[in-house]
Amino acid sequence: MASIKDVASRAEVSVATVSRVLNDHPAVRPDTRARVLNAIEELGYRPNAVARSLRTHQTRTLGLVVSDVMNPFFTELARAVEDEARAHGYSVIIGNADEQPSLQAHHISNLLERRIDGLLVSPTEDDSSILTDLAASKTPLVFVDRWIPHLDVPVVHTDGRQAVRQLVRHLYELGHRRLAVIAGPETTTTGNERISAFLEAVGDSGLSMPPEYVGKGDFQAASGQAATARFLDLPKPPQVIFATDNLMALGAMDEIRARGLRVPEDVGLAAFDDIPWFLHTDPPITAIAQRTDELGHRTVRALVDLIEGRAADSVTLPASLVIRRSCGE
Amino acid sequence: MASIKDVASRAEVSVATVSRVLNDHPAVRPDTRARVLNAIEELGYRPNAVARSLRTHQTRTLGLVVSDVMNPFFTELARAVEDEARAHGYSVIIGNADEQPSLQAHHISNLLERRIDGLLVSPTEDDSSILTDLAASKTPLVFVDRWIPHLDVPVVHTDGRQAVRQLVRHLYELGHRRLAVIAGPETTTTGNERISAFLEAVGDSGLSMPPEYVGKGDFQAASGQAATARFLDLPKPPQVIFATDNLMALGAMDEIRARGLRVPEDVGLAAFDDIPWFLHTDPPITAIAQRTDELGHRTVRALVDLIEGRAADSVTLPASLVIRRSCGE
DNA sequence: CTGAAAGCGCTTACAG
DNA sequence: CTGAAAGCGCTTACAG
Fold first, then answer.
1. Which of B30, B44, B72, B115 sits a CA distance of 20 to 30 A from A316?
2. B274 lies within 8 A of chain A by CB
3. pLDDT digits over A191-244, tens only?
4. Are residues B153 and B121 in contact, defined by beta-carbon separation less than 8 angstroms?
5. Is B64 left (phi over 0), alpha (psi -120 to 50) or beta?
6. Are residues B79 and B30 in the same domain?
C-alpha cells in the first residue's frame, strides 16, 4: 500500500507538503495542492491512521464496554452511541462483557492498549482493580446506564423510580395484591434502583413483600425463567411478575408458556425496558420505556466534552410506563 | 502514560530488553525479566498497541461491515464474529451501514485507513467503486451472508432454497393458494435467492404468482408494513405473506394488527430468520432458521486463514423450517 | 509557500 | 543474554 513518501515523490514535493494537503492546511499553493491530490488519486493512497495516531496522540476512537450486546436495550444503545460518535468524527469499538467481569476486564484493558480517546462503560460489577487501572490511565471515562458509586465519573442514566412507582399503582388498581419481582445482579446500580423503587412502592401501597417473591436474576433470559419457575412452584404464587429487564421477561414468558399458563389470566407480567417485540407478544407486554437513543447521544456528548477538556455533567433521563394488556385490563 | 523508555530506565535495561520480555522472547535472563516485570507493575505500564502496529504492520483487528446492526440476525452474527475473533486473538470493529451504500463506503474506507488485518462484509449493494478500492487494497476480505457475484472472494452464507421450498409445500398443504412475498433489495444476493426460490417453488406447486403479490422491501420494518398495506388493499388479498427477513415480518405484523385483522385466520405470516421473540408473538411465527453462530464462526475462520496466508474456502450452511402457528394448523 | 529534521513508541536484525 | 540503531508512516515546529 502506498505511503506518504510515494505520494510525495510522485507529486515532486516533500512529505511535509503532502501532509499539509491531507490536513487541509491553508498554506499550500493551489497548483501544488492539485499535483498532490492527483498523485493521491493515481496511487489510490489512503493515509495510515495508525501512524497518524502515534504522532498526534489521538486515535479518534471511543470504546464502549457493554454488559450484553444481545440485550436489545444495549444493541439500541450501541447504535445510538455509534451514530453520535460518527457525527463528532469518532469511531467506536464495542466490547461485549457478556455479564462476565473477566471479559469486561479483558475489553477495558484491550481498549486502553489501543489508546482510545475515551471510554464508555456500563459496568458489570465493581471490580476495583480494573477501576484503579482506569483511574490511573487518565483516560476520559463516562458511565452509561449502570455505574460505580463514589467515583468522580459522569453518569448518564435513566431514573426509573417514578415509572416503577406508576407501575405498582397500576397493578394495585387492577386489583393485584401479590406482586413478585425478578432482580438483576446486586452489584449493579440499575438492578438495585429498580428493586428498591419497587419494594418501596409496594410498601407505600400497604402491601407486604415476602422474601420468596423477590427472585434473583442476572439480566439474562435463563435466570428469568428459573426465578419464574420458583414463583410458580410456591403454594401461593404471585399474581404478577415484574422482570427488571427485557431478557428476563422473555425467560419468564418461556416458563409461563411451558406450564400451559396464560398471561394475564393466570399470572400477569411486566418488564423494565420496552422493545418493539413487546407490542406483538401474546399478550402485548406492559413495560417501562427508556429513551435509549437520547441516552446514547448524551453519553457520547459527555465523553466528547471530557476529551476536549470541557467539564461533563451527569445526565438523568426519565422513563415512562407503557400500559398494555399483560397485567390485565 | 508510561512508555517503554520509562520501564527501561527504571529496570536499568535497554528498551530492546523490555520489548523482549513483553513479547515473551526466550533470550532474557530470569532475573532481568523479573526486574522488568517489576518496573512494569510499578509504573502501571501498558504497551502502546498503536506503536506496535505501526512497527509490525498488523493491528490484530478485524472489520465487520454489516447492513443493519439493529436486525437481530446481524446482532447475533456480530456477537458470534466477536467471540470467534477473540479466540484467535483479534478485536473487531463493527461498522453499521444501516442499508445505506454511502455509510457502507464510509465504514470500509475508515476501516482501511485504520489498517485492519482483514475485513468481513455483508454488502448493502454492489457499488463498484468501493470494491475497486478493496481489491486494490489487498486487504484480506470475506463476504458473509450477502455477497457480490463474480468476485474472487470467499463467501460464507446460508443457502435457504431448500427451506423456502419446504415452506411453500407447508403452505400448500395447509390449503393456501394465494401466496405473497415481501422481497429485500434487489441488489442483495440473499434477497434475490429467497425470492427466486420462493417463486420457483410456487410455480412447481402449480400456483400462479401475480406481480401484485410480490412486494418490494428493503429489509427494514417500515417497508414490510408498507408492502403489507398494499397486499391488504388488494381486491383479492393474499392468504399468506412471506417476509424475507424478520424486521419486515415485524412491520407486517404491525400493519395486520393496525387493521384489526388476525393471524392466521385473516392472513397467514411466515418469515426468513428465526429469532427468540417469534416464539412469543401472537401467534408464534413460522420461520426459516439460520445457524447464525456457526455462520459467524466460520466467517472468522475463513478470514483468519486468508490473513495467515492460507487458502480460504467458501462455506454454505443449510437453513431449516420451524413450523409454528402463524400460517394455520 | 515549502522542505529538512525530529520524534511519536515500539520491534528486530545485527553485533558483541 | 543484551544493547545501539534503524525504521514503521505520519505531523509539526523551525528556518528560509
1. B72
2. no
3. 888 999 999 999 998 998 899 999 999 998 999 999 999 999 999 999 999 999
4. no
5. beta
6. no
Range of the domain at A42: 4-47
For B140, phi then psi, to 5°, come to: -55, 135
d(CA A62, CA A86): 10
Nucleotide minimizing C1' to CA distance for residue A36: C2
Output the pTM of the full model.
0.91
Output the domain CATH number for residue B15.
1.10.260.40
Tell me what pLDDT residue B186 has.
83
pLDDT tens-digit readout, A3-35: 999 999 999 999 999 999 999 999 889 999 999
Is there a single domain that holds both residue B298 and residue B259? no
The phi and psi torsions of B188 (rounded to 5 degrees) equal -105, 130
Q: What is the spatial distance, in angstroms and rounded to an integer, between the CA atom of A280 and the C1' atom of C7?
A: 60
Strand D footprint nucleotides (protein C-beta < 7 Å): 1-5, 7-13
State how many domains chain A has: 3
The DSSP output letter for B277 is G
Classify residue B53: in a domain, yes or no: no
Q: Compute chain A's Rg from CA coordinates.
A: 25
pLDDT tens string B222-277: 999 999 999 999 999 999 999 999 999 999 998 998 898 999 999 999 999 999 88
